[in-house]
Amino acid sequence: MANNNNKISLKDAISIGIGGMVGGGIFAVLGLAVALAKGGTPLAFLIAGLIALITAYSYAKLSTTFPDRGGTVKFINVGFGKSVFSGAINNLLWISYIIMLALYASAFGSYAPNLFKITGSSVDFHIYTTLIILIATFINYYSIKVVGKIESYAVIIKLIILLAFITFGLYGLIDNENLVQLSVSNWEKPLSLLTGGMVIFVAYEGFELIANAAPDIENPTKNITKAYLYSVVFVIILYVIIAIVTIGSLPFTTIATAEDYVLAEAAKPLLGKLGFTIITIAALISTFSAINASLYGGTRVSFEIAEDNELPHFLTSKLWNQPIGLFITAVATIIAANFLKLESISTAGSVGFLLIFALVNFIGFKFHKKINANKYIPLAGFIACSTALIILITNQFSINPTGIIIAVSIILFCFIVEWFYKKTTKK
Asked: Is 218 helix (H, G, I), strand (E, B) or coil?
């Protein structure tokens, strides 16, 4: 019975999934989603969410059969063996964590100056963006237990504020003249809607954190599947309603002006300056907690990859009291967040995770008998992720070539590094 104290309950597992998804994602990409999909933004979030839900099925079955703190790293190695290919994809997972961190830090840097200006110029963005990464890195070095405590409180606070925003927001939509913006005539073309959904796909990727907790979940056969299902469905509903409230509350011109902090702006018509301030605080708490957790997750991934000998073994060594991957992850995040635009970060992150999720779905299909899965669901997930990835790359290349070039360069870099490493270690 003593062991049970260390087990993760269903409620805690659901919190991990929700906390991973409702981090900085919705605060960072909502304005970008509206810019791409206009009145069809709720549908764009729904499309992205349904792809995440199908993928969560593969994750649930694989997590139950192969419970491992390496999570996705373990699934890739099981599915493809320890090869150059699996090593490159696992390296891509680590870099995708860094991209996500850059996205969250950018969101923090965009919201924070609305609360307190330092220089009153665009320099404030860079100061806040860099400072929050340094603070979160220090906390991760100081104590992993503190990271866990921050997450527990942050999930509750941000959900209470977002649910309050939805409650007041839905009430505020009554007789609101901006409601017409949600009509089908204001939707972008189907291809643009799908592209919008895929660019913001990063807002859903956090459910994969449940895989890392799988070995410690109580009654895993039942609870792992429930944790994935309940957390993803809850977040889909949350995101769709937030998108409806935002578009129904603000004219498109205002949303475009406040693209980087649109959720706070959407609270203004409902609760005035107080609402703006409350949502800004929620954004800062959410993005900070997401940075905190993702720094830990990214460090864990780099450690697991090095332990599996897919990256140099020195990455398992410690700098102060944490693996050296934490320092590398933090430095890379500071560079990416300060030098890349939000849309490029979001696009690169979505490309990385869609590719990884397509492969996890393929593994689910490949091992469907072993993991006791309906083979058509992982197959549908593989086709959906692959199709979405192709549409995202082709469509975004014409309007945001930088994001696609960065994404493709990262993938090629991962393969070259892994090939070179495998070749030198064989010698």
From this structure: coil
CA atoms within 13 A on the CB side of 12: 16
Structure tokens at 183: 């009509």
Contacts 24+ apart (CB under 8 A), 393-398: 393/351, 395/191, 395/192, 395/195, 396/195, 396/199, 396/347
26 burial via Cβ count (<10 Å: 0-12, 13-18, 19+): buried
Instruction: Report residue 312 as tokens.
Output: 């140099």
- In this structure, what token pair is assigned to residue 303? 């450690």
Q: Supply the angle between the helices 268-307 and 10-21 in degrees, to the nearest 10.
A: 110
* CA pair distance 353, 389, nearest whole angstrom: 9
Cα–Cα distance between 227 and 66 in angstroms, integer? 16
Summarize pLDDT for 173-185 with one digit per residue, the tens.
Answer: 887 888 899 999 9
pLDDT in tens, 7-16: 788 888 888 8
Query: Using CA atoms, how far apart are residues 197 and 200, in angstroms rounded to an integer?
Result: 5
How far is the CA of 190 from the CAs of 37, 67, 111, 184, 380, in angstroms? 9, 39, 31, 11, 20
Positive or negative torsion for Cα 410, 412, 416, 421: positive
Tokens of 75: 């699934």
34 neighbors 249 (Cβ within 8 angstroms): no
Gap between the terminal Cα atoms of the chain? 50
Q: How far apart are CA 338 and CA 56, in angstroms?
A: 32
From the centroid of its chain, how far is CA 378?
21
| pTM reported for the whole predicted model | 0.89
Per DSSP, the three-state class of 323 is: strand
Domain boundaries, the chain: 2-98+144-263+300-324+340-426
295: tokens are 């720094």
Query: Residue 124: which H helix or E strand, with range?
Result: helix 123-142
- 3-class SS at 250? coil
Q: What CATH number belongs to 2-98+144-263+300-324+340-426? A: 1.20.1740.10
- Tokens found for residue 38: 């206009």
Q: Which amino acid is at 218?
A: E
